[in-house]
């Protein structure tokens, strides 16, 4: 499966929308340098498909890349169909899928605006096996 990176997004803290940036540096077994989700755990990097964001836009929401707190916005890859352990090349980096979806313990601002959020059902999480730089336009290879 081949797709592409639409946006790379970071935030200082967990639980907030992320801001698109020109590029991110991923560090092996850490995550994105400068991002609040990085660290020694299984959810170092989050990915969400542009197609999932489009579903929310179709409901009339004014949302864009990073608004669902995803680090990497992709296009052309069915992320939720990937098995745990799948390897994903993003630009220079290599990720391993560690979790599909998540349980939201609290309702975020997006949920209240939309009445729903795609991240718990359609977002995926990964750990960094090989670090490097990722930019919008980079290939996503599963």
TrEMBL record:
Protein name: MOSC domain-containing protein
Residue ranges of domain MOSC in the record: 19-142
Organism: Geomonas anaerohicana
Listed Pfam families: MOSC
InterPro entries: MoCF_Sase_C, MOSC_domain, Pyrv_Knase-like_insert_dom_sf
Gene3D superfamilies linked: PK beta-barrel domain-like
